[in-house]
Each structure stands twice: as C-alpha cells, then as structure tokens.
Amino acid sequence: MKYLLASALLLAFTAQAQVYKCESNGQTTYSQVPCGDDAEAVTIDVVNPASADAAAPAQNAATIKASETLDRIGVNIKKRDLDAKIKRLERQAERQARQRDAEVAKINSEKGRYVQNLYGVLHEDKINSAIVAATTIWNTRIDATNQELEKARAEYNKL
Description:
single chain, 3 strands, DUF4124 domain-containing protein
C-alpha cells in the first residue's frame, strides 16, 4: 500500500513528453511530430510546478538530514583532531618530565666530586640552587603543557 501511494505521488509530480529534435538550415527545432527524415526522438521529464511545491517538505527533510550528517562528520573530525592533540600533549609532558629528571640527575652527580670542606659545602649549595632552578623551569613548562592538555580534554568532553 505504501509503495502504491508513493508511485501515485511520483506520477503526479512528474510527467514525460516525447518530442522530436530536428536540424534544418543549421538551426535546431523541436516538434511534437517528426519534422523530417533526420528527426531524433528525445524524452523530456517535465515537473509540475504545483507538485514541486508538494515535494518541498521531502526535499527540506532530506536537506536537514544531510545537514545533520555533515554536522556529525564535523564533530567526528574535531574529536579525531582533539584526540591526536591530547596524545601529543601527553607525550610532550612525559618527555618534559624525563628531561627534568635527567637534568636534575646530571646536576646531582656533581655533588660527590668534592670533599667535605668549606669549598665542598659552598659548592653543594650552588648545586642545590641549580637543582631548584632547573626543577622550577621544567615544572613551569610541564604545568603549561598540562593546562593545555586539560583544555583539550574539556573541549573533547563537550563534544
């Protein structure tokens, strides 16, 4: 029943006409009857303007569905890009932490080379200050990366 109704609506919306295409004296003409031996039969689909208005809601629904599909595709692309950014930032934060630890270990290795006298104490204070400075610099970088990472995660979770 549903297909019968759809077929009836389709027939009401469109019609076909067969016309003949002829060329004479370099000009192309169209006619309902063959206009010569060289007449070529052409089928033309004609849309009833009144039926086109009736088909508008279906076209609008299709347009809305297509728009929704494009929106979903856009969201998925944005999620994919944010996921890649999150992974990149996680790797960056891990790399920065390893670099910080390596630099602190390198500075710390200088402690044992000096004897425990006044020079050794002064040198150890200098090394401790260098460790604090290096740790502060790296922690600032890591914190900035983590803040950017949290923003990206929050944006991802909104989608």
